Prior knowledge:
This protein has 10 helices and 10 strands.
Amino acid sequence: MMKHADSILQLEGIRHRYEDHFVLRIPALDIQAGEILAVVGPSGAGKSTLLRIMNFLEKPQQGRVYYHHQAYTPANLPIALRRQMTAVFQQPLLLNTSVWNNVGYGLRVRGERNGKEAIRQALKAVGLEHLARHGVHRLSGGEAQRVALARALVLDPEILFLDEPTANLDPGNVRIIETIIRQANEARGTTVVLVTHNIWQARRLAHRVALLLDGAIIEIAPVETFFQHPQDPRTAAFLTGDLIY
Length: 245
């Protein structure tokens, strides 16, 4: 497999099935360091499974996943490398404690006892400094998702995986969360892999966009090319809402 010098994550020969149905069939996928890659597609296309495999949460039944040009599996990925990536999901899984304790949880697990300034900066980045001592049960859905993002960003990950991070949120919180994601990418150089059903969010945030249909990447291209000059007629149909799936 040809690997670019600035690649951070590569998939090769991925085939994954549940029972008798292939949910992923991806010959190759190359993610560049520092980019935001958005993966779009209809429900059931395999987007979340793809994200789990890229994040080493699930092992593909066939194929390999490379991180910094070295093949790993969930079983042999060193803890030091595991700590370079983190994920935020559609439903934030928060501890029943304060916002502050939630944001600092990962640091405490890693034995970092002097993380107060990092926690403050993470809360500032998501605009929740004023809620630091509040219990999470008092948060709105958008605030809870911002806490989940702060908990991920405080770890300063090299790769941030996002699975529908703004689904079911109001437009104001969508805008706030998109700004946080963009700033993390621009200021920290964080590589972001975003799974979303919202094609307009992909257009606003991504450097490249990939369309996943029935477990296969139909098209992957720079964002403007993807939206203005799609090469596959199925991509054009998906963008106009005419794809029957």
